[in-house]
Structures are given as structure tokens and as C-alpha cells.
Amino acid sequence: MKVGFLGPEASFTHTATKTAFPADELISYHSIPACIKGVEFGEVDLGVVPIENTIEGSVNTTVDYLFHQTTIPVGAEIVLPIFQQLMVSKENKGSWQETTKILSHPQALAQSQEFIHAYFPMADLDATPSTAYAANFVALHPEQKIAAIAPRLSAEKYDLEIVGQDIQDVAINETRFWVIGSEKVDVPIKSSDYKLTIALTMPNNMPGALHKALSAFSWREIDLSKIESRPLKTTLGEYFFLIDINVQKPQQLLDNALEEIRLLGGTVKIFGNYAIHPINGV
């Protein structure tokens, strides 16, 4: 089986993917949309893309593309602990505090703001497609006073020196990844729970529309773990709501709640009903 992931190798997504699919062929993609398209066009059987981080919240590129552009289902969720490292070329090990530019994925830069402000308040921040891309760039340009924020595995792969360890702003930092391409995906990692994720839209001219929709879950005592709004990209002020539901009630009860919302005039897009697989010790 072929599994696509946001690459290149040694990125956090690569770590999550190879842990979940150790015996499969892994295919690197340069961006989240490219990975999703790889699944959509049959280049790979499954894809692994980030969906949310503890510090920075939802990965909007993933949410918006899966909502607006495709009907690819979510078959599993992988949760990976995230530890950010600051790394430089070995030639710059002794002068790393002279770094003038720091490269990384926008999420990683945002997750390490306190460290950056403390040690490199004047450094330029350069966003890259992935953390591993940043590490590779630093390795290829040892003559420049630049650094990358990336996983420890990136330092090993690209022969870089870690000069700042675990620099993320929050000690318990995790990222959720969705495995897309099938309604059910078997992952060799013990599951901790189950979740149903939907996208909900309600008629704009209905007073209390969102309250009425949420009441369909409330009176059935269905537990919602997350709700957030995203622009519909039609007219200013129109949104869809991304909702995570803890699957603890019978499926029929969940189905009835969704049907009630549809009868109220709402639309429901189901991303997936899937198991959650936390990775430990990586």
C-alpha cells in the first residue's frame, strides 16, 4: 500500500506516518493540498495530513480543502507529541547565537515564539513548506548564519547540530493528524477513543439557527469536544461549523441528531467516524 504524507522525510508528519504504517511505501508531498490531491487522483491509497496543534489550533489549509474541494473520508486520527529543536549546520555550532534568520513551517515558528523573542528578537523568520524542508535548506547552506526549527529526526537526517532543545512554548505540545482515503483504516497503534467529525451549515435567515442545531446534540446528551467556525468563502459573514463529537452514544442516536439538523434546514458533511491513536515515546 502507498501512503502519502506532508514531506520531506524527517518532518513531524513523516514521523507520524512511518509509525502508523511501518511496512508500507511512503510517498512525500511538498504541501497539504498536494497530498490530498494524491489521494484524490489515486497516486496513493491513503494520505496523512496535520489537522490541529495544541498551541496553534486547527490547520486551516487541511480543514478548508477537505470541506470545499473533496469528499475524501477520514479513516483514523494519529496524535503525536511535538518537540521543537533549534538546529544549525555543524560549521555554525560555535556561533549559533549570531543567527540572522530562522526557517521553519509557520506552525513551528508560531509554537516557538517565546524562545525566538528571548534569544533572536532581531532575526528574520522565513516560512517554509515543512520543518524538514527548513532543516535541509540549512544543511545545504552552511555558509549562511541561518537556523531551522524542526524535529530531532531532521537533525539526524541532515547532519545538523541541535543548539536549542525542546523550545516549544508549551511543554505538552501535540499535533493531530488525519489519515484520509478510506472510511476505516487499521493502524498498529492502540486506540484511545472514537470521534465523529462533521461540518455544519445553517440557513442565514433563521433566528437562533446555531443554538437550534446544537440543541439536537444537547438534549440527547451527546458530548461535543470541539466547535469552531470557518468562512464559507461565498459571502462575507457566512460560515460553516467544524464539530468534533465524542462517540459514546449509540450510532442511531447520533444519526437521529444529524437528521434533526437536516430537518431544521441545515446541511451536514461527515468527514469521518474514526478511532484516535496516540503515539507515545517518539
UniProtKB/TrEMBL annotation:
The record marks T175 as: Essential for prephenate dehydratase activity. Transmembrane segments: none annotated. Keywords: Amino-acid biosynthesis, Aromatic amino acid biosynthesis, Lyase, Phenylalanine biosynthesis. It holds the Pfam family PDT. One of its GO terms (cellular component) is cytoplasm. Residues 2-182 form the Prephenate dehydratase domain. The keyword Transmembrane helix does not apply. It catalyses: prephenate + H(+) = 3-phenylpyruvate + CO2 + H2O. One of its GO terms (biological process) is L-phenylalanine biosynthetic process. CDD domains: ACT_CM-PDT, PBP2_Sa-PDT_like. Residues 198-275 form the ACT domain. InterPro entries: ACT-like_dom_sf, ACT_dom, Chor_mutase/pphenate_deHydtase, Preph_deHydtase, Preph_deHydtase_CS. The lineage of its organism: Bacteria, Bacillati, Bacillota, Bacilli, Lactobacillales. SUPFAM superfamilies: ACT-like, Periplasmic binding protein-like II. GO terms for molecular function: prephenate dehydratase activity. Its EC number is 4.2.1.51. This is Prephenate dehydratase. Pathway: Amino-acid biosynthesis; L-phenylalanine biosynthesis; phenylpyruvate from prephenate: step 1/1.
